[in-house]
Amino acid sequence: QVQLVESGGGLVQAGDSLSLSCAVSGLTFSRYIMGWFRQAPGKERERVSVINRNGGGAYYADSVKGRFTISRDNVKNTVYLQMTSLKPEDTAVYYCAADLDYGDFFSTAMDYWGKGTLVTVSS
């Protein structure tokens, strides 16, 4: 059974930092690209960042570029999202997802999804 479990969300103030983790089990982690998405209330799910299988390459949405950093540990089967200089507009439920195909990140059609962790940034 594949499981993706996000953690690390919470309530922070604008300008603060927060680190999210996503622990993955039930699949061969190193074979999968890992992505982070977010969904704010009343809005569509948005791509945030994706990292390739060995962690050597990553993509970031323009809205988070320079502030967020994605990384992965293929021994711990965990993907991370380090978020700095948080803004109120970063408030959303953050989801991690796994897929064998890098291109599926851009169509938001990932194979496996976590249940999400809420990040709230107050002004």
Written overview of the protein:
The chain is mainly beta. Helices cover 0% and strands 50% of the residues. Strand 5 and strand 6 (58-60) form a beta hairpin. It is globular and about 40 Å long. It starts with a strand and ends with a strand.
Order of helices and strands: EEEEEEEEEEE
Q: Taking all residues together, what is the mean pLDDT? A: 96
Helix content: under 10%
General shape = globular
Q: Tell me what portion of residues adopts beta-strand conformation.
A: over 45%
Helix/strand/pairing class, anyone? Answer: mainly beta
DSSP, total strands: 11
End-to-end span in angstroms?
40 Å
Give a quick account of the main beta sheet: strands, pairing sense, barrel closure: 7 strands, mixed
Q: If helices are DSSP runs of H or I spanning 4 or more residues, what is the number of helices?
A: 0
Radius of gyration: 13 Å
- What are the segments in which pLDDT stays under 50 over at least 5 consecutive residues? none
Keywords:
123 residues, globular, 4-stranded antiparallel β-sheet, mainly beta, 7-stranded mixed β-sheet
Question: Summarize this, please?
Answer:
The chain is mainly beta and 123 residues long. The chain contains no helices and eleven strands.
